[in-house]
Amino acid sequence: MIGTGTLLTGGGGLGAIKVVHAADAHLGTRFPHMDKEAEALRAEDVFRVFGDMIQAVIKERAHLLLVAGDLFARSNIRRETISRVLEWFAAIHEKLPHTRIVLTPGEDEVLVRKDGSTDCTLGVFEHLSYVDVLGRGPDCDRKVYDLNGQDVTVGSCPYEMFFEPDFTARRILPVKRGCGVFLLHTYARRRRLLPLDTAEFKTRVLEPLAARGYRYAALGHNHSLSTIEHNGLTAVYPGSLERLAVDEDRGKKYFVTFTIDRNGAPGPPEPVRTRVRPLEYITLTCALGDDAITATLDGLAGAGGKDKILYLVLEGQMAFDAFSRFKNSPTLAGLRERYAAVHLDNRLVLADPATGYDYNALRVGTPAEEFRRFMDREMAQAPDGSEEKRLLAELFEMGMREIEQDL
To answer: Which whole-number Å values give the CA distances from 374 to 192, 360, 395, 397, 406, in the listed order?
Structure first.
């Protein structure tokens, strides 16, 4: 279920607190204008990965699950998406009744109305006693949990609070008891707020948190895995659970685990790479009047598997009617049944042979072929027996020799 990485290590034993830190799951439909197959593949993959993480929380008996923003992909969440998340959280509570889940809103989870009031989509979890949503108001929130015999203080606030003119470290609620963990999604809804470099981020954000006693900052919004140390505070971006490019981002999906020891000190964060489905990548070059594409894919009979993704790239040229037949063919339907998902990357130049257009003229030949075509066209326009035609013939012979020497 889980790929590379060590899960919940260090500081184990009675009194140790196991913590899972994730961010940027983007569950649900996120890109309505994306190709339907690509968006369905993205959404299904994110649900699978998030479910894997939930099973890891249960298997390793984690005490605290932190989600640092963007649990959902959009503010208008579908009922099916909410139902699946509620089922996952209920599964954690059923197996681990003392485990707590703490969320903070991300970029797409707070709706700002014209009158300045806000509404948070994470309010759908308010009725759950084991789920808390912190940091959705204008000020700092704080909650103290008794986990496995010791206290943990979890704080959170909106990111833009750090950049208000009257901001001071005293606006951050201090650690009340035990180890201090601060949950922060680093997306500001304040306009014209430029990204910070590491030095300025330490000064503007991490320094106030360290001054108020926090030892670990659970960050979100940056989809890459990174760690920043500052004055005894460890700030971690856990990476994203979302894969946008199926073939390029297959190994970039992480969440982070760490353990708070009996003395209330957080151990080193351990990145855990989620399980990646095998990807079968096939590129087919098509030509007009060539129906071999179906025969080629029929050769995959017996291959595949529900644990694999087929990424099919079509290049070259194909007639409109032939492409339409392929999309609705039993061959493609059979592949969708054998694989977990089939993504069709259409890079074809679609043509209509009925128009009588010479599509072969679009083909780019070898340097020698292109040079011969150009010289034949020039010599055909020159008068027969003229000096111009004789010079063009000599130029053609010289050019062909140079091309052959270069090759």
So the answer is: 55, 16, 12, 13, 19
